[in-house]
Amino acid sequence: MIDWKLVLEVIGILIYATFMGFIFMGIERKAMARIQRRVGPPIYQPIIDTLKLLGKKESVSHGFIYDFGPVFAMGASIAALLFIPIANFQLFSSNADLIVVAYLLEIPMLGIMLGAMSSGNPYSALGVQRGLLTMVAMQLPYGLALIALIQHWGTFKLSEIVALQQTQGWSILVPALFVAMIVFDIVFQAMLGLEPFDIVSAPAEISMGPMVEYGGKHAALLFTQHAIQLFAETAFFAVLFLGGASNLLELLIKQIAVLFIAIFVASIYPRFTIDQAAKFFWKWPTILGIIAVLLTV
Amino acid sequence: MINELMIILFAPLIAGVVAWALDIKGIREAIGIIGAAIPLAYLVKLYPTIIENPIDYSITVSGFTLQFQLNTMSWYFAAVASLVGLAMAFGMAVTSRESYDWLFALMSFTGVLGVFLSQDFVGFFLLWELMTFASFMMVLRRNRHESLKYFVLSVIGAYAMLIAIGMLYAKTGALDFASIRQVLYMDAAMGTITTRETAIIFGLFLTAFGVKAGAVPLHVWAPGAYSETDQSYTAFFSGALSKAGAYGFLLLYILMGYKLYAAFGTFHNHLTFAYIIAWIGAITVVVASFLAVLQEDIRKLFAYSSVGQVGYILLAFGLGSTLGFAGGLFHVLSHAIFKGLFWLVTAAIILQTGKTQFKDMGGLAEKMPFTFAMGLIAVLSLAGIPPMAGFASKWLIYEAAISAHMPLVAGAIFLGSALAFAYVVRFLYAVWFGQRPSDLEDVKEAPLPLLIAMALLAIPNLVFGVAPGLVTQYINKILGGEVVGGDYYKLVTPTGTYNALLVTIALVIGLAIAGLVYIYGAKTRKIPVTNTYQSGNPVTEEFNLSIRRNFYKPLAEALEFWLKYSWDRFYERVAGMAEDFADSLRQAFYNGNVQSYSWYLAIVLLILALWGVL
Fold it and tell me: Residue A65: which of B365, B511, B532 has the nearest Cβ?
């Protein structure tokens, strides 16, 4: 007995999320360009880029793990997406637990790192090192923000968090959770890999870090993975703090709002060095996070 | 008919002695493996019976009655230890070349099983010391300094435990767990044992078990001792022996829990004594994980990581809720299987390459593919990637810590997990990937017994990962209630749910979609690791471009202030001062002058005369 409705929903949401993810990437480039007074590429440019990469006749490989890395990353992104309640589509989210989804959203990073490490390129290795240190740095405030949220709503289930917000008002209207939202938003910048925490890819320093060796269909996979991840993370933000959504349009508006905050922050700050980032994360966001958890105990 | 418990308990010891006495290559390995397999076989055989009726056995030795019992909890711990023990024996069949190793490794196996099965403090203490002694002998063989460090801390722990047992005996007049528990339970209401005495007993037990579990600041022996021994044995040392410490904390709850609650009360709605244990655990997790990230030696890295992971168990027990116990007990199993696996992988690497420093390794994934696959399973499990056993247990601890309203302790778990991610990736990169140093060109895959040992521990990582309910349903029986609900594939707590099978399916769907894109994409051409993008600089074979040394230097820079302080250096300095002091005493008194010796004699006699002894 296969639940055909669920199957159709999964396929539909996957296509929608991939497409919107690419559009988000396009918006990101376009908005950044407008802020810097450039014209910028058309909004559908990432889709063209990805199709071009897929159309390459040959791509190089450094071995099995190098191929497996991007596949694993994209697989994990898709898995994470399936557990997030997307508007009125529940997918697998009746079983979704906040901790599980938070972990699933981190797995793609491991996949990318696995592939990057096996390429043997020192820039990739530097990117891996920076990626993990950013993660170490941001995990404490990130964890504290999630703890504050769970303590306030008293549940780990994403669907229940959404339901509670729809009856009792959005999370950010609660003062303690507003503080948690600020912390989460700072961490969010690092999760998306945007300035001032674009330490991992740092195009001008280490030539895109982990992604440096990838080309052809591998790069296309990573682009698609990034699109899905972007969609999943913005949706995750909307679900946790902005009351979820009852239809896709409402969700889209919230996602774009979240995205624009990230773009505006990114376009005015320069990049931190990695030890500065660690010290920063362990200072203000952590203090704010501790305040948030103590207010919600 | 000899009792089954005695067979379980002494089979490894007897096998060890026989292997040591015969000392014929081939036969001693066979005897050792059989000796290590017997406890597991018997435990599996007894599994259906122990849930309803525990098996008791007691022997009387010179006035003391030693009681042993196989109940649901001791079965769990003993089974975990036996599984790791069997894997250790398979591993040792190739990594150990001397009968000495077999004797003491299997002796400590008996000690650990004895600690778990004992139902009174006489047997508990004796077998605890047997375990400590045997493991000390294993370290002594390789490194005297590290073994002494281990020895001194173990002796401190042993004395602490002995005094605590003595005080308990003086107060309760009993040595067996059942009566002590009963008397202390009654005493909680009456209060004949004062709060101060309770605090002293608690502190002493905390020291004794803390040493074995490697809780900060008593962890300093662990990195040295874990690394300076046969690595197959370390699988057992870190996988099972450290659990004796965790078991001790659990024992503390069983015996003294109510009394401690009555004596210390609560602190912001947490049991005060449990709160202390939780914070010891949280600090252990953070400190040990940070240190693990900065290590340059593969053995040191896993040693610190092991200390940190046992910290999770203490933290979970310290939450004081049944969900916390469930999480801690699950982590006992998952830590044993993934860390045991890690040490066996390390054993294989060291056996095949003869190197231990990250700077000498690299590119081994092509040479040892099976070992690499096993290492990857261990990495995924330790880093807590669903669906692996390590995630299920960590998830329970997260749920328990946040539901227990200990946000900062839960924050420590988040930080610890990120650090765990960082150090396992370091291990992956430095050992398996990048350019291969030229002297590792002819490295071969690990020998078969070691591969069997690895598979033995890798399979439970996958099985209990996809079906965590197998473990939690047994844990429910230990805790006597439906603590974690759900079925084989799904865990349900009052506030959250984790469906391991569904996560697996989602991952498979994702991998299938991504795999299709990959397969129907363009052809691939394989190129060597030296053929990479280098901003125009050609790569030559002479320069190894892989970053092997100081991989996490920025972190060390960010932590500069904290790294100035070290418990290890502090103890070394205290030890040095004690040594200097003793040395100056020796030089002052034993100066070789007969005249001064006669003066000492005269002074002693004078003191005795004044005291009225003479």
Answer: B365
- Mark yes or no for CB contact B529/A155 under 8 Å: no
Q: Tell me the per-residue pLDDT of A217-235, one tens digit each, with 9 for 90 and over.
A: 888 888 899 999 999 999 8
pLDDT exceeds cutoff 80 at B558: no
Dihedral sign for Cα atoms in the order B176, B179, B182, B187: negative
What share of chain B in percent tops pLDDT 70? Answer: 97
Contact B434 A120 (CB under 8 A): yes
Q: Is residue B607 part of a domain?
A: yes
Give the pLDDT confidence score for residue B1 in this predicted structure: 47
Would you place residue A23 in the very low, low, confident or very high pLDDT band (cuts 50, 70, 90)? very high
- Number of structural domains chain A divides into: 1
Question: Domain span at residue A79?
Answer: 4-296
How many other CB atoms are found less than 10 A from the CB of residue B455?
17
User: Cα separation of B104 and B131, whole Å?
Assistant: 9
- Quote the minimal CA–CA distance from A268 to chain B in Å: 25
Q: From B526, which residue of chain A is nearest by alpha-carbon distance?
A: A61
> Residue A205 half-sphere exposure, CB side, CA atoms within 13 Å?
16
pLDDT score of B153: 87
pTM flag (> 0.80):
yes
Inter-chain contact B517–A119, Cβ cutoff 8 Å? Answer: no
The whole-angstrom separation of Cα B433 and Cα A119 is 8
- Within a domain: residue B288? no
Q: What is the ipTM of this complex?
A: 0.89
Neighbouring-strand partners of residue B60: B65
Domain-located, residue B341:
no
Report pLDDT for A231. Answer: 92
A184 contacts chain B (CB < 8 A): no
Terminal-to-terminal C-alpha distance of chain B: 60
* Percent of chain B at pLDDT exceeding 90: 3
Look at residue B410 and tell me whether its pLDDT is greater than 60: yes
Cβ atoms of B558 and A135 within 8 Å: the answer is no
Tell me if B402 and A14 make a contact (CB, 8 A cut-off). no
Torsion of CA A286, A290, A292, A297, to 10 degrees: 150
How many separate domains does chain B show?
1
Q: What are phi and psi of A213, to 5 degrees?
A: -80, -15
How confident is the model at residue B541, as a pLDDT? 63
- Residue A253 forms contact with B (CB below 8 Å): no
Does the beta-carbon distance from A120 to B529 stay under 8 Å?
A: yes
Task: Give the tens place of pLDDT for each residue, B108-122.
Answer: 899 999 899 888 888
Q: Which of A95, A125, A140 sits opposite B547 (nearest CB)?
A: A125
Asked if residue B593 is part of any domain, the answer here is yes
Yes or no, beta carbons of A136 and B421 under 8 Å apart: yes
Range of the domain at B583: 566-611
B555 chain-A contacts, CB cut-off 8 A: 133, 136, 275, 278
* Residue in B383, B493, B552 closest to A133 by CB: B552
Find all residues with CB under 8 Å of A16, minimum gap 6, and list them. A248
Neighbouring residues of B196: CB distance < 8 A, sequence distance ≥ 6: none
Q: Considering only alpha carbons, which residue of chain B is nearest residue A60?
A: B525
Residue bearing the bigger pLDDT, B550 or B165 = B165
User: Who contacts B250 (Cβ-Cβ below 8 Å, separation ≥6)?
Assistant: B73, B317, B325, B328
**How confident is the model at residue B74, as a pLDDT?**
87
Using DSSP, how many helices (H) and how many strands (E) does chain A show?
Answer: 13, 1
pLDDT band, very low/low/confident/very high, at B539 (cuts 50, 70, 90)? low
Using a CB-CB cut-off of 8 Å, the residues of chain B touching A144 are: 407, 411, 414
Q: How far separated are the first and last CA of chain A, in Å rounded?
A: 44
Task: Supply the mean pLDDT for chain A.
Answer: 85
- Cβ-in-10-Å burial (0-12, 13-18, 19+) of B275 comes to buried
